[in-house]
Amino acid sequence: MINLRIGIFGIGAIGGLFAARLVGHMPTLFASESTSKALHDGLILHETDGAISYLDPDSFIIGDENCQVDIAIICGKSADTTSLANLCKTVLTFDGIAFSIQNGLGHAETLAQILGWDRVLAGSTIHAAIRKDINEIQWTGVGEISIGSLDSSSPNVDDLKVAELMNILDGAGLNLRWENKMKIKLWKKLLLNVAINPIAAIAGIENGEILLKEELWEQSIAVIDEAIMVARIEGIEISNHEMHALLAEVLQQTASNRCSMLQDIMAGKVTEMPSLCGEVVRIAEKHGIPTPLNNQLLTLVGALERSARVK
């Protein structure tokens, strides 16, 4: 058995969830100055069954540039990927493994530019959580974590570390799965995000409301269909029918969840729209394809962001 030192980079809702579930393995938490200060008082996790876990600050390490980790899980906002990757370069062991579970596309490539493909996997998660306070997390939906190569090629990372990481994350109830074609998985997550997050954020509603209001459901379907068209031009074969069914399933599973974009708007923070609808628009423009719905959502959420910050 390998004694893996696990680092979690970005302690928001998902990073905080992973940290709380991994406390038995003394994870190292890399957080902003304000979050690090709050973590000195511990971490609180509201489990999906209603139980509340109070986690002593002695059960994790608050990381800095002098730490070393064997596994780096990147959970921060999309805009922070490069800075977090540079921090990884300082603290990740020479044969360590890094992967991102952030929203959007291109994060594995960003990590690889800085760390090399021999230390990078692609990653994604469909766990759902909200941040009730700076050091208090509510787990709102049990999902899974997927890691693997972007395409069908074999990655160059340490197989023994991957096997032990799978044991640890499965034991923590985080359900780690290996995927040989992560690019399709990442596109599916992007499609779901563009169809849910901006609509829920603009309307100021929980996810389940999109299913209950016909006009919002129709808008969500129209947005995802437009984005699927862009995915196909990028060589990603995805069925509209499959994605419609998956969208409905995710909305049901996360019905009471406030998506991360709505949480950002409510907190007066910058959203991840450039990595969601913005990414769809960017790729479409590269191929000379109009994407009016994703473009419109990008504009509307941007205006909402600015308005929220003024208040």
Description:
The protein is an alpha/beta fold. It folds into two domains: 6-180, 3-Layer(aba) Sandwich (Rossmann fold), CATH 3.40.50; 184-310, N-(1-d-carboxylethyl)-l-norvaline Dehydrogenase, domain 2 (Orthogonal Bundle), CATH 1.10.1040.10. It is 47% helix and 19% strand. The chain has twelve helices and twelve strands. The protein has helices at 13-21, 33-39, 81-91, 107-115, 159-171, 182-203, 208-212, 214-233, 240-253, 260-266, 277-286, 292-310, and strands at 6-9, 28-30, 43-46, 52-55, 61-62, 69-74, 92-100, 120-125, 128-133, 136-141, 145-148, 176-179. An eight-stranded mixed β-sheet has the order 5-2-1-6-7-8-11-12, sandwiched between helices. Strands 4-3-10-9 form a four-stranded mixed β-sheet, with helices on one face. α1 (13-21) links the parallel β1 (6-9) and β2 (28-30). The chain is globular, with a radius of gyration of 19 Å. 46% of the residues are buried.
Question: What share of the residues does DSSP label as strand, in percent?
Answer: 15-25%
Number of strands: 12
End-to-end C-alpha gap = 53 Å
Shape: globular
Brief write-up:
By secondary structure, the chain is α/β, with parallel strands linked by helices. It has 2 domains: 6-180, Rossmann fold (3-Layer(aba) Sandwich); 184-310, N-(1-d-carboxylethyl)-l-norvaline Dehydrogenase, domain 2 (Orthogonal Bundle), CATH 1.10.1040.10. It is built from 12 helices and 12 strands.
Give the helix/strand layout.
Elements: E1 6-9, H1 13-21, E2 28-30, H2 33-39, E3 43-46, E4 52-55, E5 61-62, E6 69-74, H3 81-91, E7 92-100, H4 107-115, E8 120-125, E9 128-133, E10 136-141, E11 145-148, H5 159-171, E12 176-179, H6 182-203, H7 208-212, H8 214-233, H9 240-253, H10 260-266, H11 277-286, H12 292-310
